[in-house]
Amino acid sequence: MSRFSIFTKLIATLFILLIPILLLFVVSNRTSTGVLTDEIIKVKRYQIETFASQLDQLFFQFDTYQKMLYESTDVRNLAYPDLLDDVLNKYRINRTVSEEINRLAGYGDWKAVIAVVYPRTGNVIKSSSSLNALPNKLPAQDTFWQYYSDPHEDYFMEILSYPDNAAESGEAHMRVVLKFGVAALRSALTEFKANGSGDPFLYHPEEDPIYNYSVNFDQIDEFLPDLKGLDSSTDSGYLLLKSDNTRFQVHYQKLDSLGWYLVDYVPISQIMAPISRNRMMFYAISGMLLFMGAYLAFVMYRNIQIPFRKLIRNMNLIEKGIYSIRMEDKPKGEYRFLYERFNSMASKIEELIENVYKEQLRSKEATLKQLQSQINPHFLYNTLAYIKSMIELNENRAAISMTMNLSKYYRYTTKTGNKMVRLKEELDLVSFYLEIHCMLRDDFEFQTETEPQMEDIWVPRLIVQPLVENVILHAFKNQSEYGMIRIRCWREERMNHIAVEDTGAGVDHSFIESMRKKIYTNNEEVESGLKNVHQRLRLMYGSGSGLRLSKSKLGGLCAALCWSDMEDVS
User: Fold this and answer.
1) Contact 255, 261 (CB under 8 A)
2) Packing angle between helix 273-300 and helix 6-71, nearest 10 degrees?
3) How many CB atoms lie within 10 A of CB 328?
């Protein structure tokens, strides 16, 4: 039968058809996503770099204004009013400085407060007439676009003192102040967003972000904590951040003038949503196709493969000898006819096998009875003659002992009701038999070694006695020395063993081989006690059991009965 079933082949075919399509789609989708992502990065980098450059240019321009005022002779002369010639000259210079400040503050679209403060005279010249144009108290140190948070207005402020670094000691004669409100930056960020950008804002790790006026706080709050780990040594780049709901591509560009970062982000999940929907739709369609294919394969499996497998399984059981098996749950269609034919065939085979088996049992029963009848009356006449002699010699004890052993021996051998006995009873019979021969001959002795767990196992009746009888009749027939018979019973690797060894002489390899041929031959004309034992074991326990012959360590023959372990039979 084929190694792979029809169902397995159908499923494999479906996968082989779908896998190239899926791979092609995955590669195509990944390529499209990669190209789109690269384009987003390029466009966003260009936008954010352009806007950051504009902001840096603005603050660079303000720095230029500050330096112009700082180096102006008229601005510095007002710091020393005592050196001026008269009040008219002082007024003229003051007016000139005021006009210069207003002129500088009026350039461009970005408005800032420009002021010159003279600490010694308390005079302040500024570009705005608002009372809150400057803070009530200026910082003692000079600053470079330092961020300040005020209840009225957040702002950046830059201060430059004359002489240099004199502000901390309180000896500054003049301080040029530039103040730029955050509101202007918010407006710029809002305008930048309206031109097609995402949602830009200014970020500093130690300050609150500066947002545009239409900021989406919900989205920014999802990734804002991740910006804390931004490397301060990098001036620009982008991060790929992921929240619970959205993936973000966050771009940043450092403003050299402020030290803050211009940050803008792209919600990649939203931009890629159409592509993701198409991908999910393709996967859903592929899954439906796979499901439909699997369903069709399942229908074929249920209606073809399962009945076929049941038929094959039951045929294997018939082959193993289980002839009572029948096909149940008959399906509809062609397999119903096959099931019925199979049941009819199995019924006829079971009937034939039962008849043959009964005939074999009757044959085995007759054979066992015949084998048993051949073992019994070998030495009756010798024992009776021994008893007669002992009585004539007034050796009553010997006669009584012989009589008792003989009666026990024949009481056991004439019980034909039970074909199986426990090994201990069989060994007792052997002891009676050997005791009788020891009295008759007085030229040998015997010993028995039995493992305790072997005593209660069931064995065929009169299975050991023929081995001992073979030693008495053949091994000790022409011996000149005192003989020894050893009987050992043990269990090893689920096999039972009973070995009968002797000290008889004249046993070599050729002798053992000739005995094996007589025992293992199928010729019915060759009869012997050892062959009978061998056949009985094979009939009872199968072909793996029987009589095994080898040379004994005692010098003679070792005849061992071996049979496989099985349930006890009484």
Assistant:
1) yes
2) 170
3) 9
The pair of structure tokens assigned to 370 is 């015949």
The answer to whether 157 and 132 have CB atoms below 8 angstroms apart is no
At 474-496, the pLDDT tens digits run 877 777 788 899 999 999 888 99
pLDDT tens-digit map of 169-191: 667 888 889 888 888 888 888 88
Q: What is the pLDDT of residues 299-348, one digit of tens each?
A: 777 777 777 777 788 888 877 777 777 877 777 767 777 787 888 888 88
User: Can you list the alpha helix ranges (DSSP code H) found in 140-272?
Assistant: 182-194, 217-223, 268-271
Report the pLDDT value the prediction gives residue 167, as an integer from 0 to 100.
61
Residue pointed to by tokens 């500093």: 204
Report the phi/psi class of residue 26: left, alpha or beta, with left for phi > 0 and alpha for psi in -120 to 50. alpha
Q: What is the C-alpha to C-alpha distance for residues 348 and 341, in angstroms, rounded to an integer? A: 11
Beta strands in 377-514 (DSSP E): 420-422, 444-450, 458-460, 483-492, 495-502
Cα separation, 162 vs 172, whole angstroms: 6
Q: Is the pTM higher than 0.70?
A: no
Q: Nearest to residue 458, comparing CAs of 502, 506, 495, 421?
A: 421
